[in-house]
């Protein structure tokens, strides 16, 4: 007969074992742990996902990409942004290496700030089907005007802790 602590520990162990088995059978990752080149374009990039080990829990996942780059669609000059991606996962989590490769694939992609920000958000929704997602694209000035682009899938779920994105407005270099 087990005491309360031993029963609780055994339950945690069984849950962890079941989660690991589920991850192995439901995860077919092709990029993590492999030497993978940066895809030539966002369209060629594959965003991979893994099973959410706690799909019943309401929580927030944040990805921050302070060095996102694209090319101006008109001049071909580089554009730079600080992206902040928040999402409340449902059944799947975004695998971070595949996200890194997807974001890097924009380096030679020509697109307006608005189009690139929305494309990132929409591709993540397509890949992971989260309960909710928002993206903030904080673009550095070109021609003296910073452009900030915000998109979300709708109202955040009730009870979701939603911290500020933490990117101050552009104030110049002083």
Q: What count of helical segments does DSSP give?
A: 3
| Biggest beta sheet summary | 4 strands, antiparallel
At the third CATH level, what is the topology name? GTP Cyclohydrolase I, domain 2
- The CATH architecture term is 2-Layer Sandwich
Alpha-carbon Rg, integer = 19 Å
Shape: globular
Which residues form runs of ≥5 with pLDDT under 50? none
Number of domains: 1
The secondary-structure class comes to: alpha+beta
Mean pLDDT: 89
Distance between the termini: 68 Å
Helix and strand string, N-terminal first?
HEEEEHHEE
What is the CATH class? Alpha Beta
Q: Provide the CATH superfamily.
A: GTP cyclohydrolase I, C-terminal domain/NADPH-dependent 7-cyano-7-deazaguanine reductase, N-terminal domain
Helix content: 25-40%
| Number of E-type strands | 6
Percentage beta strand? 25-35%
Strand order of the largest sheet: 2-3-5-6
Walk me through the structure:
The longest helix has 23 residues, at 4-26. The termini are far apart. A hairpin with a 2-residue loop joins strand 5 and strand 6. The chain has 3 helices and 6 strands, in the order αββββααββ. It has a single domain (31-152), classed as 2-Layer Sandwich (GTP Cyclohydrolase I, domain 2). The chain is α+β, with helices and mostly antiparallel strands. The strands form 2 sheets. Strands 2-3-5-6 form a 4-stranded antiparallel sheet, covered by helices on one side. Strands 1-4 form a two-stranded antiparallel ribbon. It has helices at residues 4-26, 96-104, 113-128, and strands at 49-51, 61-71, 78-88, 92-94, 132-142, 145-152.
